[in-house]
Amino acid sequence: MASKIDEIKAKAEANKPGQLSGLQLYSRFAFAGAVCCSVTHGALTPVDVVKTSIQLDPAKYNRGLIGGFKQIIGEKGFGAVWTGVGPTFAGYFLQGAFKFGGYEFFKQQSINAIGYEAAANNRTAVYLASSAAAEFFADIALCPLEATRIRLVSDPTFANGLISGFSKIAKSEGIGAFYSGFGPILFKQVPYTMAKFVVYEKVSEAIYKRVDKSTLSNPAQTAVNLGSGLIAGFAAALVSQPADTMLSKINKTKGAPGEGTTSRLIKIAKELGLRGSYAGIGARLFMVGTLTAGQFAIYGDVKSALGAQDEERKPTPENGTLFQAFEWNVPADGKHWKRLIAALPSLKHIGISNIWIPPACKASSPEGNGYDAYDLYDLGEFDQKGGTRTKWGSFDELKELSAKASEVGIGLYFDAVLNHKAAADRKEKCQAIEVDSNDRTKEVSEPYEIEGWLGFDFPGRGDKYSAQKYHWYHFTGTDYNAANEKSAIYKIQGEGKGWSSSVDKEQGNADYMMFADLDYSHDEVIADVKNWGVWVTKTLGLKGFRLDAVQHFSERFTNEWAESLHKECGSDIFLVGEFWVGEASTLTEWLDKMHHKFALFDAPLLYNFHNAGGTDSFDLRKIFDNTLVQSEPVNAVTVVANHDTQPGQTVETPVADFFKPLAYALILLRPDGYPCPFYGDLYGLLPGPDTPFDEAAPPACSGKLPDLVKARQLYAYGACEDYFDNDSPDAVTCVGWVRRGAWDRGEGGCAVVLSDAGPGTRRMFVGDGTEGQVWTDVLGWARDGDGDAEVTIGADGFGDFTCGEMSVSVWVRKDAGGRDQFPVKFDTDIYKMA
Question: What sections of the protein cross the membrane (predicted)?
């Protein structure tokens, strides 16, 4: 659940209004860089004076860093070590602004140009290119002031300070003199900065792989910046030392008449040699290591103080889509896991991120769907209840499905039936009271002895995985008395026994639903089912659970079970409960009791879809009224159909064929909720004993459901602007919305128009700077004669987007990335796959 909530929060954060960007953001980066560079370089002016003196006259200043300090102070006084502090501070204020601000700017441009994923995979190259580009422009600003500083250090009598020295060079030697060292300064500073930023990024990455940055205090993050900066400084000093020495030499004196910069550099390089080029390296290692550590520490703190730190763009997660990977009438041939294995690549291609598999535990028979659960620990491994495999396949095939799903990047959600057990191995006698089937709080008999199917020994499995056996005292109720062959609802009697008080009030008390009802006040039941949750999660590498009929068993235990699972397997295990009721308020009350660790299926929204497709008077503007996704968007799993609502099932809730594409657009292409397309809509439905049809029903949405899921994966990102309420004559029957796209996903977003009556049109704004863009419908349902319709965006950023009669259109830029993948190629004949 945590990962899904984090995904939704990240999307909201990436697109929230008022986010710093452009000049507001990069001016803060630049100012932070200016402060960190000017302060650190200015403070280390004495070290730089000694270092420069050693480079310029190594024969004289040959006593190392400390000895050099003593020599200079002894010869020239204490003030001599602060020579050039003015140009140093000013020069590095400018250079720091360009360097750090430019680095952040060019790094972001690289991400924008090639996409976040490509940039992340090639981040070293991004760091190198961004730092090199930033340093080039920074050196244009630095070079005149660095030339002035070096001239003042090498000849203290040259001028009295920055302004007089700068003016004297400009007047006597011309502007070109300031850039005589531009080549060496590039040669020095570009490798220096590239090494500095790359090593800093790599060291901090290594640290944050071991320590969660979000858990660190501000002082701890500053310490990380200091340590990473120190190592980066050492690397940068070693890389740039030869150029630094040459820069000091070339700026010491002006060149001879007619002598060019290149010839001077060659001459100096020959004179120095490799060893000479590393003169003063000790002083420079100390200086550069210290100042680089200080720079990154100050930079991080100033960024944070200016509000830029938290506003750096984070990558937008790919939209998650859950897929219910079964329908009620899948053949009981044991090949379902094999078919799903074969289908995984195509499901991943269209954008499915997780699949909800059916109850994989041993049922009462090989034909059982698993809601008649017998043994939670038998996943098709043991010869019990008529065979080894389940309806869906064998344990080995299920493990193969888990492995293949992980390989392609799809998570598995397990359908857990925890309310009851079925098909007991033997009868047991106990005391019980009959209760009213319509009100389980009303007792209709005195206590008497019954003989119920309440003994579970699991003879095929024995004690493997769990030694727990079940007896009458592990249950609260049953529905058959073998002693008198009477079917009724029996409330089992015993010390401390009774219906759970923390269940829904359906039928007076909803604890009893069917078969042998588990007693979650019994310590052995609690321990065994908690253990099973952890075991099955680790065995199959599960990413989530769908809990069947959560209103029918203890809310207290459900909370405990979730806490145990998250503690042992991680808080990112997703949990969704099935609580089929039409009132959103009832669902939100249950979520409150679960402390929002769960999601729930949005039954009220499905009822709205049912009503919208079945009446001419439905107001589409109210399609989300009184729904869970409206009140609890993070905790709503949205559906158009499922195995319980399909034809012939217990809560059959048909959605009109024409309305299904509209309904899927409403759950897939909007920002709220976690959409869950249904197997029967993607692959079609097979006939069963209770279906109103005798032949297979084709896939829904005229086969366009894969296209709608793919459109979600590629384009449904960013802020959503609704066109649900206007004065047009068709306002009740035609609605639209625009997704703006995120900074790193969405390719400009999408514009959606749907109508449950005649053809519809909505004039919608798609963004500034979009004039002249041509948009087309990825579904291909918006037509212009025999060809695809096109919408050209006007100078005001608006377009007139259309849809056909009782139809939907999903418009994107004609040149949007991924547009050539439509119509989506998808094999819906899953039964030929195994």
Answer: none
Q: Is residue 594 part of a domain?
A: no
**Domain of 781?**
714-830
Residue of higher predicted confidence among 255 and 684: 684
State yes or no: is 548 an active-site residue: yes
Mean pLDDT of 117-140: 85
DSSP string, 444-488: -S--EEEEEEEEB--TTTTTSS----B-GGGEEEEEEETTTTEEE
Q: Specify if 28 maps to a domain.
A: yes
The question of whether 578 is a catalytic residue gets the answer yes
Q: Which of 59, 577, 43 is nearest to 287 (CA)?
A: 43
Residue 157 forms part of a structural domain:
yes
Please give the tally of structural domains in the chain.
Answer: 2
- Active-site pick, 555, 578, 632, 644: 578
Does 510 reside within a domain? no
Where does a domain end: 280, 306, 332? 306
Task: Count the Cβ atoms, other than its own, within 10 Å of residue 662.
Answer: 26
Q: In the prediction, which pLDDT does 20 show?
A: 57
Question: Which amino acid, 399?
Answer: K
Catalytic residue among 375, 548, 707, 777: 548
CATH number at residue 818: 2.60.40.1180
Tens digit of pLDDT for each residue in 178-209? 777 677 677 778 888 898 899 998 998 888 77
pLDDT at 148 over 50: yes
Average pLDDT over residues 588-596: 96
CATH of residue 279's domain is: 1.50.40.10
